[in-house]
Specification:
This protein is of the alpha/beta class. 28% of the residues lie in helices and 23% in strands.
Length: 389
């Protein structure tokens, strides 16, 4: 397999919230995995087939959208659009997590149908990656009548996620809690809608309902799009250890208020970032970058910490072998720089100044999927590829 060296890295953002910037300027990639991280002069370059000099730009892990509502393929019936996932790739997103294929026209609401949809979506996205983007599809929508044997079957068939509880027919904690236990028993990650209703048939979910149901993730603590009160949010932050999701298609003021409490509670490792799109708000290819910018420019979060919230934090929750730059991880990477005209001198300072960074390239499993993004401003730097001398 071809061996790639990426060198002259200005800042290497790890995705690890506890050590967000690495003291390294070179990556070695082979077989789709990161093989070495360090200083160029100390790494063995024998066998390198391609050298990619990025001229001092920044590398981050590929961004992970923790909250997407796909259906099948790269089409959204909610906004009647094709190629929205491919467009997200141009926003640095290399992985999407389904929060439920709830927008399917005529979505089945019986036990057999909801299982069939989850299994179909999980298998379909596992076999076909839109534009190369990895989609963890098949977010099971909980409907009345599901039994433990169903969760065992779903897990066996590749379903790994329970979509937002509250979007289906199961809404009350007393009905959902047993299903959550079964889902966790068979290794699924469970998310729960929090806040006001989002679509017809969904329900308003307060903090006590979330606590009684005991999911893994508090979906859109800042609203999807309507937020719970700050007192309710504070209860979830301070009195639980649940993962807290911030989304683009939510209440922006609530992000500021929530992050003040999160910082006081030293809960940065519990924050993940999602888009919550396609939705009524639309399709937002730069949504994850925009939340990163919001956190770093208005909430006192360092840019590299905000990036970790959109990469390593999410990968840890979903048990993904990506989202962190370290040996053995999948080489899903974003090469970015300050955009032309920014006051920032590099990608991180540009983000903290509130500017969307310019993406110069995105790799998935060590393979370049795009060069300069068509959706971000152009980066100052450029990539120069060559064969080793």
């Amino acid at each position: 397999m071809a061996k790639l060296m990426i060198k002259n890295i200005g800042a290497l953002v790890s995705g690890n919230i506890s050590n967000p910037v690495l003291n390294a300027d070179t990556l070695m990639i082979e077989g789709g995995l990161i093989q070495a991280v360090g200083k160029e002069k100390s790494l063995d370059s024998r066998g390198v087939d391609q050298v990619m000099d990025i001229g001092g730009m920044t590398i981050t892990p590929g961004l992970i959208d923790s909250h997407c509502h796909p259906v099948l393929g790269d089409f959204t019936p909610r906004q009647k659009m094709l190629d929205f996932i491919e467009s997200s790739l141009h926003g640095g997103v290399t992985t999407l997590i389904s929060a439920g294929e709830v927008h399917l026209a005529g979505r089945p609401k019986d036990v057999a149908g909801t299982k069939a949809l989850a299994i179909l979506a999980a298998k379909s996205f596992a076999s076909a990656r839109p534009a190369g983007v990895k989609v963890l599809g098949g977010g099971l929508i909980l409907e009345p009548g599901l039994q433990e044997k169903d969760f065992e079957e779903l897990a066996r068939e590749g379903v790994k996620v329970v979509g937002e509880i509250g979007l289906g027919g199961v809404k009350r904690p007393k009905d959902a809690a047993p299903m959550v236990k079964w889902a966790k028993k068979y290794g699924m990650v469970v998310m729960m809608h929090t806040g006001g209703t989002s679509i017809p048939g969904s329900t308003t979910v307060p903090a006590d309902d979330v606590i009684a149901t005991d999911p893994d993730i508090v979906s859109h603590i800042n609203g999807g799009p309507t937020a719970i009160s700050l007192l309710e949010a504070e209860k979830l932050i301070r009195k639980t250890s649940l993962i807290l999701e911030i989304v683009h298609c939510g209440n922006s003021k609530m992000i500021v208020d929530v992050m003040k409490i999160v910082k006081e509670a030293k809960a940065y490792p519990r924050i993940i970032i999602g888009n919550d799109a396609p939705s009524g708000t639309g399709v937002i290819p730069l949504g994850i970058l925009r939340v990163i910018n919001f956190l770093a420019s208005l909430c006192g979060v360092k840019a590299e910490e905000a990036i970790a919230m959109a990469t390593g934090n999410t990968a840890k929750v979903y048990k993904l072998n990506r989202g962190v730059i370290e040996v053995g991880k999948e080489a899903d990477l974003v090469i970015m720089d300050a955009p032309m005209g920014s006051v920032g001198k590099d990608a991180l300072s540009a983000i903290e100044a509130g500017d969307i960074p310019g993406i110069a390239g995105v790799l998935i499993d060590g393979v370049m999927k795009i060069g300069v993004s068509r959706n971000t401003p152009p980066p100052n730097g450029k990539i120069v590829s060559s064969k080793p001398q």
